[in-house]
């Protein structure tokens, strides 16, 4: 979907190796395993979302060199398919989402929803710089570089950084008891 208009794309695959994914306005992309119970292995050079697109992922390891999310409306830009999915999302570089996107949430402005944050792990092999405006993470986030949280950014889960964490006005962190002793480990280089 390269322009306006609703499109709903469903992919069934155990392994995906694609150069780029560009989601148009109001596009919804779901990625399911082809083999029931198997984890998806996903590789891409870049993923580009629109301000109103949603990517729904099922259990797997998702690798990309670039993930671009512009300022968005009150939507979840990427989220797990349901509470039973365990997703590892690796970005080999900086991640700078625009204002307002929801990451594994029901929207922005702290609208976390019911998905367990410990099941959605983001590994950013670079810096994180959120645009603020209500950007919402419902995840465990590890940043190799520095993390700069715009005003406001909401995190339900955890944030760890190999460098400075800079928190601007009105940002909020919420601990979720379901996290327990989760270990999010080191970033990995994508080849």
Structural write-up:
The protein is mainly beta and 191 residues long. The protein has no helices and 16 strands. The strands form two sheets. Strands 1, 2, 3, 4, 5, 6, 7, 8, 9, 10, 12, 14 and 16 form a 13-stranded parallel beta sheet that branches.
What overall geometry do the principal axes of the alpha carbons give?
globular
* Average pLDDT score: 89
Number of strands: 16
N to C succession of SSEs: EEEEEEEEEEEEEEEE
| Rg computed from alpha carbons, rounded to a whole number of angstroms | 15 Å
Q: Helix count, per DSSP? A: 0
| Poorly predicted parts | none
Strand content: over 45%
* Helicity, as a percent range: under 10%
**SSE-based structural type:** mainly beta
**Terminal residue distance:** 28 Å
For the report, how would you describe the main beta sheet?
13 strands, parallel
Helices, strands, pairings?
Layout: E1 7-12, E2 15-22, E3 27-32, E4 40-48, E5 54-57, E6 60-68, E7 76-80, E8 87-91, E9 102-103, E10 120-124, E11 128-129, E12 135-143, E13 147-149, E14 153-161, E15 165-167, E16 172-174
Parallel strand pairs: 1-3, 2-4, 3-5, 4-6, 5-7, 6-8, 7-9, 8-10, 9-12, 10-12, 11-13, 12-14, 13-15, 14-16
Task: Offer a quick outline of the entry.
With 191 residues, the chain is mainly β.
List the defining traits of the structure above.
mainly beta; three-stranded parallel beta sheet; 191 residues; 16 strands
């Amino acid at each position: 979907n390269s322009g306006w208009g609703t499109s709903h794309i469903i992919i069934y695959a155990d392994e995906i190796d694609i150069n780029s994914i560009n989601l148009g306005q109001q596009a919804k992309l779901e990625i399911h395993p082809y083999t029931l119970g198997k984890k998806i292995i996903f590789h891409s050079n870049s993923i580009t979302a629109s301000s109103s697109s949603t990517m729904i992922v099922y259990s797997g390891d998702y690798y990309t060199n670039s993930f671009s999310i512009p300022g968005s409306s009150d939507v979840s830009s990427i989220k797990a398919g349901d509470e039973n999915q365990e997703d590892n999302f690796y970005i080999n570089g900086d991640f700078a989402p625009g204002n307002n996107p929801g990451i594994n949430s029901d929207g922005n402005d702290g609208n976390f929803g019911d998905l367990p944050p410990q099941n959605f792990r983001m590994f950013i092999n670079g810096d994180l710089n959120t645009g603020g405006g209500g950007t919402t993470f419902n995840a465990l986030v590890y940043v190799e570089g520095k993390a700069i949280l715009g005003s406001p950014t909401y995190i339900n889960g955890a944030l760890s950084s190999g460098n400075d964490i800079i928190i601007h006005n009105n940002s909020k962190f919420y601990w979720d008891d379901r996290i327990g002793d989760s270990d999010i480990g080191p970033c990995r280089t994508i080849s």
